[in-house]
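Continuing from the previous page...

OK, I double-checked the sequence for Trehalose synthase against my notes and this is the correct one:
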Amino acid sequence: MKNFKKGSRAVYACSQRRAPKVHRHPHHDLLLPRALITDSRRRSFYYICSSNWIMSKNKADFESVASDSLRRRLSNASEKRPNVIGFTSLTPMWAGIAGAPAPNENGFEVSISVHDSVYNTDFASTLIPIPAGKKTADPEQIEEHILDAFRKFSTEHLCKFLGAGVTLSLLKEAPNLCTRLWLELDIVPIVFNIKAYHTESLTKPHIKHRISATNSMINSQLQSGAETPTMLTIPVGSLAGLQAGVTGKLPVVRTLDEQADSAARKCLMYYGPNNNPRLTIGPRNQVTVDAGGKIHLLDDLEEYEKSVRPGTWRAVNKFADELREKKIKIGFFSSTPQGGGVALMRHALIRFLSLLDVDAAWYVPNPSPSVFRTTKNNHNILQGVAAPDLRLTQDAKDNFDQWIYKNGLRWIAEGGPLAEGGVDIAFIDDPQMPGLIPMIKKARPGLPIVYRSHIEIRSDLTSIKGSPQEEVWEYLWKNIQLADLFISHPVSKFVPKDVPMEKVCLLGAATDFLDGLNKELSPWDSQYYMGEFRSLCAKERMNELKWPARDYVIQIARFDPSKGIPNVIDSYYKFREILKSKVPGDEAPQLLVCGHGAVDDPDASIIYDQVIQQVSSEPYVKYASDIIAMRIPPSDQLLNALMQNSKIALQLSTREGFEVKVSEALHAGKPVVACRTGGIPLQIQEGKSGFLCEPGDNNAVAQHLFDLYTNKKLYDTMSEYARTHVSDEVGTVGNAAAWLYLAAVLTRGTKLKPNGAWINDLLRAEAGEPYLPDEPKLPREGLDVHAV
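Thanks. Re-ran it with the corrected sequence; updated structure tokens here:
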């Protein structure tokens, strides 16, 4: 092994598209001991080249070897479908990726460190040659190399990479790397500015640290309680084994494999239970989406552009440009940062607006279980699914008011989002947050406020004097009426007659077709999540989902009184009774009912227990072994895999808001059998993408299931139509256009009077982008939101 040339210099350079800017180490004659510059396996070593870049002398491949016997034990194949081959379990893994130009080698070096959440388990380094006549490596070539390395390692070692730390310098050289890791390999990329040298972190003044060290000399220098120094100096003679003349001062060069390993370890810090990225909440309870921007799911706006029609994209950019130029700040306020449909929409919306460089922030209150019990009761009462004797008591009102007042004070106080100099427009979500509106009006009378109603409000019941619905609505309306606009789902009878029609505008719910819930999963990634689901079922002693040997029918929904789960069980029983003359019992499709929970939904356990009791009772117990009911952890990709691998989707809600799960199923190419409730009929084209039934007509549901399962031509035709006829209005981009339009118009000082119009129609007209005749959109006919 070669020695280091005497007088070599340690440097750090930030990898950029242009020629790198070099920052020289202040100690020009720093010599590095061989022990500090070789990797742990001594297969390659690092040296300081004349152009001041640290690079690898030799290629280093992954060394770990997968077990053939383990592969045989875990492998499985479906006898019913020989083309479906997979493994019952894949090991979750993480990685770190670093890269830097290697000018003396005329290439670009990439290092990958593999981590199992406890230890670094493997490492590889490769030099990618720079094409003749070019000064830098081809970004696509770098991306392809990294993706191929992950694919090969995954298949050889039977693992699934969940997250990867990516160095900022590498991302600058391969700007689409994170987007491709997310969309093609289902790896969550987290970007870190890993420096090419070690330094001591600056510590806060007056904070003392205890530093333990095995070296007694170092320990005596840094006694317990001493402040951490920013520069550690150790007499060279006391460090045995180092070359003569080596300085003991920081910083010390960090080689590329060390940078990759550092990125992997930092990546793991952002993961919590169930191997999901942690939800992060910032000051004043701002939801810092995607770990405050460190998680880069999508860096390429073209991916969003490809997901919508041209008119939608041009309209979005028109209003985004206006808001950027005026430096308009947008604030969203909702009750919970995860679990429900509103939270899913807000995560996707903030992510997209950040890419557009629109200044938008999302805030949530401190959670209160007692208040969430009240808000859930209010929700059930307004939908008409609560017990008739359930009422909103004065004590509950007082507790609710105190809770929102305490949270509102944090946002209205100096420096808060609702104080002077804060947001320029406020969007208030759902019946949990209306108490904010009078506080905002008092603190900032001129601030535009828009109230967004995401739930069904039974206007026929709110109009009955003395009814529980009238009491709840009267309590909420005294605050909501102060808002400038009232946004409702585009569903008849969803707006109580108290709301002036001039304030009413219509907007459906939305989903993100590029996030974990809806993006296309590769067979490898899909089988990982299906294996995770099998493990969850085994852990809870639930029946086994026998996919891929057998098909299954699915309903994805919270365990909620309004989701019609008893009708799902009954419809499945009747479907199996019809089907038994055509298909043997062990080949018939199973039923899967599953969903996430929300932190403000205390009903889930009660409803889940009722479902299990129903399945165990007559006559349903006959098919109980083929019914799987599961509350699953908050993994979007898990729900995605379950939907993509299903045969038919159900949505038998008895009461509903919009229920965008229907559009998610259609986008996945699944024909949907659903009830005519809420916004569901707006999303399904009867007989083309699915079938609609009256709530409780379980015989009709069973017959439609039978027709779809036994008629392949009907199924294939519906599946293709469903996949290709989802409106832009129910996607993140189309939904974002509505919020951008409202923010642009209302911050101009314009008094908007929509008079029950669809926001999408208003914005397309304002942008000069009318709908084309063949452009899919939600039906506008026969709608009377004020009907009683």
